[in-house]
C-alpha cells in the first residue's frame, strides 16, 4: 500500500510543491514517510515538516518509491546515480525527459530498466478519460491554448492508440495537426484554455469548470460535495474520488482554468503513483515525444509513434 511506502522525492521546486506533495497527500502518505533530497536551501512552508537532506550520500535508508523532479539540467545525471543506489525501488522521472537533445545518450541506460517510468500525466487526466470514452472514428479534438508540444504529443499518442501519426506544424498560427484528427491550437494562455471535441453527431467542451451544477449541455464540469470530487457530463457522474474539504479549499476559492487544470493533474499523478493505470508512460515514449516536438518545431512536419 502506497500510504505505508517509504518515498524519496528529489527536488523541491514548483512541480514538487504544487503537484507531487499534494498527490501524496491525497494518497494518505504521511510526511514521516517522505524524504526530500534537494540542493537549494530556500525556505518553503510546504516542506517544513518533511525530512530534508542536501547530499545524496546522506541517504542511508531503503526507499520503496523514488520520484525525481530535479531541475532538467541535472535530472538525468541524478537519476542514473539514484538507480544504482536504490535498484529495487519503483522510480518515476519527470518530463520532458531531456532538456537538450545533446543528452539523448544519457537516457539509453534508463530505457531498459524495468522499475522506471515517467510522471507524464496528460494521458491520465480524468477529463481526458471521459473524452476518450466518448470518441468515435470521425471525432476531432481541439486542445486550445495549453502548454508545450511535448505533453500534447503524449495525449495524442494515448488517443490515437499508440499508432504512427503524421504531424504538421504551422509556426505562424502555432497550430499542430496530428493525423488531421487532433489539434493543438494557439500559444499558451491558461485564461483562454479549453478542449473542444466534435464527434460524428455531437460535441463536447471542457472549460475546466468547478461548478455546483452543469454550466451547459455537453460540457464537462467538476463538482465537489460532501467530501467527494466528481467529474460530470450532462449531470452524469462519470468519475469521482474522495478528497477532504481542507485539501479542496484552494481550488474552491480560486476556480480559474489554470487552477482547475492543476487539480486534474494532481489527480492524474495519484493514479500514476498508486499504480492504478494499466500502463504508465515509459521513458522510451517520453523520449520519442521530445525528439518529435523538436523536429516539428524546426521542420514544420514529422512523424510520431
What is the arithmetic mean of pLDDT?
93
Oligomerization category of the chains in this entry: single chain
Count of separate DSSP helical elements: 8
What structural category arises from helix and sheet content? alpha/beta
Identify the strand order in the major beta sheet.
Answer: 15-14-13-12-11-7-10-9-8-16
Helix content: 25-40%
Ends apart, CA distance between termini: 34 Å
State the order of secondary-structure elements, H for helix, E for strand: EHEEEHEHEHEHEEEEEEEEHHHE
Q: Please tally the β strands and state the result.
A: 16
What can be said about this structure in brief?
Helices cover 32% and strands 26% of the residues. The chain is of the alpha/beta class and 305 residues long.
Amino acid at each position: 500500500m502506497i500510504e505505508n511506502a517509504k518515498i524519496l522525492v528529489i527536488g523541491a521546486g514548483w512541480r514538487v510543491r504544487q503537484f507531487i506533495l499534494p498527490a501524496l497527500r491525497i494518497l494518505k502518505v504521511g510526511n514521516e514517510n517522505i524524504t526530500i533530497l534537494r540542493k537549494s536551501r530556500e525556505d518553503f512552508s510546504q516542506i517544513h515538516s518533511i525530512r530534508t537532506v542536501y547530499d545524496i550520500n546522506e541517504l542511508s535508508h531503503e526507499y520503496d518509491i523514488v520520484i525525481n523532479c530535479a531541475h532538467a539540467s541535472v535530472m538525468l545525471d541524478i537519476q542514473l546515480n539514484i538507480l544504482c543506489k536504490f535498484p529495487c525501488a519503483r522510480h518515476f522521472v519527470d518530463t520532458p525527459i531531456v532538456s537538450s537533445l545533446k543528452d539523448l545518450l544519457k537516457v539509453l541506460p534508463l530505457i531498459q530498466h524495468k522499475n522506471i517510468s515517467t510522471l507524464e500525466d496528460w494521458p491520465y487526466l480524468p477529463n481526458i478519460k471521459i473524452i476518450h470514452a466518448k470518441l468515435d472514428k470521425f471525432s476531432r479534438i481541439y486542445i486550445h491554448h495549453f502548454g508545450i508540444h511535448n505533453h500534447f504529443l503524449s495525449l495524442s499518442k494515448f488517443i490515437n492508440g499508440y499508432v504512427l501519426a503524421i504531424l504538421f506544424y504551422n509556426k505562424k498560427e502555432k497550430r499542430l495537426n496530428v493525423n488531421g484528427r487532433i489539434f493543438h491550437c494557439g500559444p499558451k494562455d491558461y485564461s483562454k484554455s479549453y478542449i473542444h471535441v466534435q464527434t460524428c453527431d455531437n460535441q463536447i467542451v471542457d472549460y475546466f469548470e468547478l461548478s455546483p451544477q452543469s454550466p451547459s449541455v455537453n460540457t464537462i464540469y467538476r463538482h465537489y460535495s460532501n467530501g467527494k470530487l466528481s467529474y460530470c457530463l450532462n449531470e452524469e457522474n462519470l468519475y469521482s474520488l474522495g478528497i477532504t474539504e481542507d485539501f479542496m479549499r484552494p481550488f474552491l476559492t480560486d476556480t480559474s482554468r489554470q487552477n482547475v487544470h492543476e487539480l486534474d493533474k494532481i489527480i492524474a499523478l495519484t493514479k500514476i503513483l498508486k499504480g492504478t493505470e494499466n500502463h504508465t508512460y515509459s521513458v522510451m515514449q517520453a523520449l520519442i515525444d521530445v525528439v518529435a516536438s523538436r523536429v516539428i518545431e524546426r521542420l514544420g512536419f514529422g512523424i510520431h509513434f
